[in-house]
Amino acid sequence: MRALDWEFREHADHIFGELKGRARWVTLEVLDDDYLKEEWLDGEGEKAGPNGECLMESFVEAKAGWTGRQVWGFAIVEGERRYTRRVVISKGSEVLKIRMVYNWYGPTA
To answer: 46-87 pLDDT, tens per residue?
Structure first.
């Protein structure tokens, strides 16, 4: 579960180690990274946030020296509406960019 209030929270686990992260609802206009802005659906039917936002953004800073930024939402992938995440991980001058694509079956009861 994530609180979408853009407040930092600390977390530690055996995979990522010690980090602090935050998350929020966003619009495309708020994003400042071209890769993170690509391909999103932002029509009226996509607006799920409290102020009409269509995307969620997450940012983490790890004690190990890396940062991660994710944007989550819906995009058309190979002709189908799919839930996707775009991720940018940075450590020093190294940058990794990935896109994850998920099946979406709708809200659960």
So the answer is: 998 999 999 999 999 999 999 999 999 999 999 999 999 999
Tell me whether residue 52 is in a domain: yes
* Closest CA relative to residue 43, chosen from 30, 33, 52: 52
Q: Would you tell me how many other CB atoms lie within 10 Å of the CB of residue 86? A: 23
Distances (CA, A) of 53 to 65, 92, 93, 96: 31, 31, 32, 26
Range of the domain at 53: 9-102
Q: What is the CA radius of gyration of the chain?
A: 15
Which residue stretches of 1-109 are H helix? 34-37
